[in-house]
Design brief:
- It holds the Pfam family RGS.
- This is RGS domain-containing protein.
- With about 240 residues, the protein is mainly alpha-helical.
- Helices cover about 75% and strands about 0% of the residues.
- The protein is built from 11 helices and no strands.
- Helix 6 runs antiparallel to helix 7, helix 7 packs antiparallel against helix 8 and helix 7 crosses helix 10.
- The protein is elongated, with a radius of gyration of 44 Å.
Length: about 240
């Protein structure tokens, strides 16, 4: 019994001696939480380091408004390109349309005006005749036919390769493309020819199309012009200014 008690007491004593170690283990919990906190900090630090490594090399050098600056630069470049395109197109259209300016073309004689009513070819060879005919086409909403023909004439005179290619591209966009409001009426065969020619544009890329539009104006618009009040008024005005004719 004494031995058992001793054992029990020893066991109790040993158990009691273990209690501090158990409480010591529980007492290590704050150290565990500290380790967890340290791990969190290490993980956060690793994530930040990883993010910094994945960032673009020049990200650190960018200011707070870097995106705005880049956007402005891109917009400026795009705006400049569009502005240059508009200037080139405006200059080209001025050259083609300016040939029919009333202030620049010479005053026709009575004989010339009479010839216009007899021959479409003579009318088209005369700057004043083309101008008067173009004014009539405006009333019929078909001025693009004359503008296209004049643009082709201008292209055929061009000798500079880069300028010629640029003019050919503008002619296609303005008068051949189905997206253009000034598209002229061309059959499928002529369009196929143009598409092939545009792979390597030359000064004669639109010859077939120019002839087709010329024929269209001759057969369709020209007879109406000769019988129009505009032509008769012009003929009367010129005859009054030149009574001796």
């Amino acid at each position: 019994m004494l031995e058992n008690r001793k054992l029990d007491s020893t066991g109790e004593t040993s158990n009691r001696q273990r209690i501090p170690s158990i409480s010591g283990i529980h007492g290590d919990i704050p150290m565990g939480s500290q380790r967890m906190e340290m791990r969190k900090r290490q993980t956060t630090g690793q994530q930040e380091a990883s993010s910094a490594a994945q960032a673009p090399p020049d990200a650190a050098n960018r200011g707070p408004n870097a995106c705005c600056f880049c956007w402005c630069c891109c917009c400026s470049c795009s705006w400049n390109e569009e502005g240059n395109e508009r200037n080139r197109r405006a200059s080209y259209e001025t050259k083609t349309e300016g040939t029919t300016d009333c202030d620049q073309r010479p005053l026709p004689t009575l004989e010339e005006v009479r010839c216009w009513g007899q021959s479409f070819d003579k009318l088209m060879k005369c700057p004043a005749g083309r101008g008067a005919f173009q004014e009539f086409l405006q009333t019929e909403f078909s001025e693009e036919n004359m503008l296209f023909w004049l643009a082709c004439e201008d292209l055929r005179k061009e000798t500079n390769k880069s300028t010629m290619e640029e003019k050919a591209r503008l002619i296609y966009e303005d008068y051949v493309s189905i997206l253009s409001p000034k598209e002229v009426s061309l059959d499928s065969r002529v369009r196929e020819v143009i598409n092939r020619n545009m792979q390597e544009p030359t000064a004669h890329a639109f010859d077939d199309a120019q002839l087709q539009i010329y024929t269209l104006m001759q057969r369709d618009s020209y007879p109406r012009y000769v019988n129009s009040a505009a032509y008769k008024t012009l003929l009367k005005t010129v005859s009054e200014q030149n009574p001796e004719a």
